[in-house]
Write a structure and sequence with these properties.
heterodimer; A: about 500 residues; mainly alpha; two-stranded antiparallel ribbon; 22 helices; B: about 500 residues; alpha/beta; six-stranded mixed β-sheet; five-stranded mixed β-sheet; globular
């Protein structure tokens, strides 16, 4: 197999080449993983912002060093986002919203170590699986990814929205309400087809709609803090000590199919340009609940509910590199920045790269493996630290998180308006949550709302008929998946109720 | 005490002296020069500006710092420079893409609100097709379009964008009729041509870099064939008169900037344009490095702006007229809210169920959905040939949301709320929100760090923390951390404040 030979060369290159000293790649990967963890942990700094801010530093580097630095940052940002999601219910990255539900539930039970450990193991396993898929299947996957036209993207967005049904089984009506609110809020801004300003009240800051990241930070970070303050010192009896104990390996092995499935979903969805890690994580969560033997545990700290989206988020990094390397097109905002950075090194990502500079490509693959191993190591070392952080006095911790949330919101676009958006959504999140309205569907709707509308209208523009969503096979398949994903959790719950009644 | 006084005296003198020295010193630049960029970090214009900043630092005593102000199709970046002090320390990376949004929006400034220092790169407009499709060459495009009017699908970033207007121009001059499918950016549009969902992409030569195995350039809008693509014909070879359509990128400042400063900047940019590092960057990105001075650049800006105006109209944009909007939306919303609340109040009183938060949220949601529906009634009707307009999707979601809100109201209004969780320390929450609100107001006035000090100290005190030593230590660590990470490492331009 030629691939193995190439891969071996790739690993060799990580131990230095003629122009690169032996210690440099290792240090760079380690540094990249740390930077990635940091931007992931900080709400407001996403992988793409982190990468973009690092681009000027890569100008003077050897191209190979530059590319492995950027990929190391990229692959570790996903786990960084889940740390804060689990520890303080403040997802550092959008994809971590799917992990927050069960992860934070476990933390509230006093077992953040379990949640963090499970997420870390699933994330890095997902990263490895994603890399293997990237190496062996990237060309066939890219072919499928290109089949996604406007009708299929619309149906994918609808499918994504139906995950709400399995995420929020306790209060479906309220969840549908917040979904609708998110969808409606996403119509604010210049309409993509006619460039007509909608619901902007003449404010240019709203021309692009509400910035997603500040809204996310507001809903989760600020909203969560306000809830925390409301309950300050009143739930003293609940949990006072947090355990940093990681889950046993045997427990993890029991749910290995769940992790592998999550990773598969992550790599596939991540490879579709424009879909990305967040949608992958939500779909993985929905599928995990559907196929689980204990669906009733979801939402109350189910390990499967943590590992599946974590594995998907980890694997989607490899997935997003598929269109980059096989077609030369970015699969996500972060990979778009990578293309820009690489072009300055005279490297144009694309299929030609396998021929002209295969060492570089395989060094990149090898660095993904090594990066995931480093991530696992650093994550395990950091586990105790995170848990100690949660135990810090809330009166100190909460104002600090607010300050970080606001500076993060500002840094997205260097805009004061986004700071106001963050505050507004923070108050909204608090009001909604204290009345039992879940906010995760609102976030999901904000991610998918524009994708749904844009592709809906593009499809109608180009085909001129409503039937296109059914006649396009990909679109039809996704719509059928959407129907299943909407109905299944409801049927599951009905069955369980009947069982309970029969037993009693 | 004496020591202290002396120290204060020295400090005052020092501040005064340094302040006057700045005022007296006429030479420019006296502080770092900001380059405002309208894209997020990593975009093509951003990378150009960053490269320029790096090159320019060789020829300038002060560093050049790129600051991203994305949003509103570039209007936020334009507004930022328009409102900046005209002292030359705020440079705007000005791409041709700005011409359409400036002219379609009534925003208080125009293309003559800026002084165009120099144009640094140009790139011809091209049309790109998929090698494996049936429509590849310009001949095939024209033949197919003439035989099947309104069938071919052309795509590119946005509506009324530079590339869209280029399309309108081509269709007009070639006398063909096709569909325009706008995308949120160039990237997704190229992908759609690679996946054969669309036939033609309008862009620039660099768009096919790395994708040569799938994409090809059908025609280019230059006078001569491009040296890099000798096999690619020009539009004029097909009798389509498109020769000076280029996508240019240059730099501009506020128009009131003093002439000596402008001369300095022009000289600085000229030195950069001759620098070998800059030239190698330009070559890599496949654009053409040029240096057009103010007169030539301004002439091009005005010419292209006029042409944009003509083709914007042809594309169906109404310029100069204020579009009709829904009258008194805010009043409408509050009237609706008042009516809903009154109804809820009466019903819950009669049923003795109590006005719960759930009911209030559902009622507000219902009013919001109706408001959105009301505003959307005044959106322009769908364009000719399309049957879904700007209002369709918002109206659909608004109906969906109203339905959910009504269901929640219906379910909750008749039942007495369960005991549930009692309200917690709401007063504490309201105080925190108030502190945070003051913080957001304070930030642009007093500057980021004083405001953050207020937030941290105020928040901790309100939450009842009284171990002052721990508090001070924590605040100092957090502020230092933010300073080094955001200000120094990531160079985020945190608000400096206007009071001090």
């Amino acid at each position: 197999m030629e691939i193995f030979g190439n891969l071996f060369e790739g690993f060799q290159a990580l131990l230095g080449t003629g122009t690169i000293p032996w210690w440099q790649p290792g240090i760079v990967i380690m540094g990249g993983v740390l930077i990635g963890l940091f931007v992931g942990v900080m709400p407001g700094l996403s992988a793409s912002t982190g990468l973009a801010l690092m681009v000027p530093f890569t100008f003077g580097m050897h191209p190979m060093i530059a590319i492995i630095l950027l990929t190391s940052i990229y692959l570790s940002a996903a786990y960084g986002g889940t740390i804060t999601a689990i520890a303080i219910n403040t997802p550092g990255t959008p994809a971590a919203v799917a992990v927050a539900k069960d992860g934070y539930a476990l933390t509230k039970k006093g077992k953040p170590g379990q949640a963090l450990g499970a997420s870390l193991l699933a994330n890095t396993t997902g990263g490895m699986v994603g890399t293997i898929i990237l190496i062996f299947l990237s060309f066939p996957i890219a072919k499928v990814a290109l089949q996604f036209g406007p009708p299929a993207f619309f149906s994918l967005a609808i499918f994504g929205l139906t995950i709400v049904a399995s995420m929020e089984s306790k209060n479906r009506l309220k969840a549908m309400f917040t979904t609708a609110l998110g969808l409606l809020l996403m119509t604010v801004g210049l309409d993509i087809i006619n460039a007509h300003p909608r619901f902007t009240f003449g404010n240019t800051n709203l021309f692009d709609g509400f910035s997603f990241i500040p809204a996310l930070i507001g809903l989760f970070a600020v909203g969560e803090i306000l809830l925390n303050i409301e309950n300050l010192k009143e739930v003293k009896s609940a949990v006072e000590s947090f355990s940093s104990k990681m889950p046993r390996l045997s427990t993890m092995l029991k749910i290995k199919t769940n992790i592998l499935k999550g990773a598969g979903i992550g790599a596939m969805v991540g490879a579709i340009p424009g879909a990305g890690a967040t949608i992958a994580a939500f779909i993985a969560y929905g599928e995990a609940r559907r196929s689980s033997k204990h669906p009733e545990e979801f939402g109350n700290g189910s390990l499967e509910g943590i590992t599946s989206p974590s594995a998907a988020a980890g694997a989607s990094a490899g997935g997003a590199l598929v269109p980059l390397l096989t077609l030369g097109i970015p699969g996500s905002a972060a990979t778009a920045v990578m293309i820009g950075a690489l072009s300055l090194h005279n490297i144009t990502p694309g299929p030609e790269l396998f021929k002209t500079n295969s060492t570089l490509v395989y060094a990149l693959f090898a660095s993904l493996f090594v990066g995931n191993l480093f991530l696992l190591l650093i994550g395990m070392l950091g586990n105790k630290l995170w848990v100690r952080l949660i135990a810090a006095p809330k009166a100190i911790l909460l104002p600090i998180i607010i300050a970080i949330a606001f500076v993060g919101s500002y840094a997205v676009k260097n805009s004061m308006f986004d700071v106001y958006v963050c505050l507004g959504f923070g108050v909204l999140g608090w009001i909604l949550r204290r009345n039992g309205f879940p906010t995760a569907p609102l976030v999901l709707a904000m991610i998918l709302g524009r994708m749904a509308e844009t592709n809906f209208r593009q499809a109608l523009l180009s085909e001129g008929t409503w039937t296109v969503f059914i006649t396009n096979p990909l679109s039809l398949g996704l719509l059928m998946l959407a129907a299943i994903s909407l109905a299944w959790p409801i049927i599951q719950d009905r069955r369980k109720k009947k069982k309970v009644i029969a037993e009693s | 005490m004496v020591e202290m006084k002396r120290f204060l005296f020295v400090l005052t003198v020092f501040v005064l002296v340094s302040a006057t020295s700045v005022a007296v010193k006429a030479d420019f630049p006296s502080k770092p020069i900001k380059i405002i960029v309208h894209t997020k970090p990593g975009g093509a214009v951003d990378l150009m500006a960053r490269q320029l900043a790096q090159v320019a630092s060789k020829y300038c005593d002060q560093p050049l710092v790129v600051i991203n102000k994305p949003g509103g199709s570039g209007l936020l970046a334009l507004a930022n420079v328009y409102k900046s002090k005209p002292d030359g320390h705020t440079l705007l990376a000005f791409p041709a893409a700005f011409l359409a949004p400036i002219q379609t929006t009534d925003i208080g400034f125009d293309i003559d609100s800026f002084y165009y220092i120099a144009c640094m790169t140009i790139s011809p407009e091209v049309i790109i097709t998929n090698i494996d499709s049936d429509i590849v060459t310009m001949e095939q495009i024209l033949e197919h379009a003439k035989a099947n009017p309104g069938v071919q699908k052309w795509c590119g970033p946005g509506s009324g964008s530079l590339d869209h207007l280029m399309g309108v121009k081509i269709w007009d001059k070639a006398d063909i009729s096709v569909k325009w499918i706008p995308y949120s950016g160039g990237g997704p549009a190229i992908v759609s041509v690679m996946g054969k969902h669309n036939d033609v992409y309008i862009g620039n030569p660099e768009d096919i870099l790395g994708r040569e195995s799938k994409l090809t350039i059908a025609a280019v809008s230059s006078k001569e064939r491009l040296p890099n693509f000798p096999g690619t014909p020009t539009f004029s070879e097909f009798g389509i008169d498109l020769t000076d359509d280029v996508m240019w990128r240059g730099f501009a400042v506020q128009k009131d900037t003093p002439s000596e400063t402008v001369e300095y900047l022009e000289d600085l940019l000229w030195k950069c344009s001759q620098d070998s590092l800059w030239l190698s960057y330009v070559e890599k990105t496949m654009v053409q490095g040029v240096f057009m001075r103010n007169d030539e650049f301004t002439e091009m800006v005005i010419r292209d702006a006029q042409s944009a105006q003509k083709y914007l109209k042809m594309a169906g944009f109404e310029l100069g007229s204020v579009p009709e909007t829904a009258p008194l939306p805010v009043l409408f919303f509050f009237a609706l809210m008042a009516a809903l609340l009154a109804a809820l109040f009466i019903i819950t009183k009669r049923k003795q169920t109590g006005l719960t938060g759930t009911l209030l949220i559902a009622a507000t949601g219902l009013a919001l959905a109706v408001l959105f529906y009301y505003i959307s009634l005044y959106f322009p009707a769908p364009r000719k040939g399309t049957f879904v307009g700007a209002a369709t999707v918002p109206q659909f979601w608004a109906v969906f949301m109203s339905a959910m809100a009504v269901l929640i109201l219906w379910n909750n209004i008749r039942t007495v709320p369960e005991g549930g969780k009692p309200a917690g320390r709401v007063r504490l929450v309201v105080m925190t929100i108030a502190i945070t609100a003051v913080y957001t107001v304070l930030m642009p006035l007093a500057g980021f760090f004083p405001a953050t000090l207020f937030l941290l100290a105020g928040g901790m005190l309100v939450l009842g923390y009284r171990k002052y030593l721990v508090m001070v230590t924590a605040i100092v660590i957090v502020m230092l951390f933010m300073y080094f990470i955001f200000s120094r490492l990531l160079m985020v331009p945190l608000p400096a404040g206007i009071l001090f």
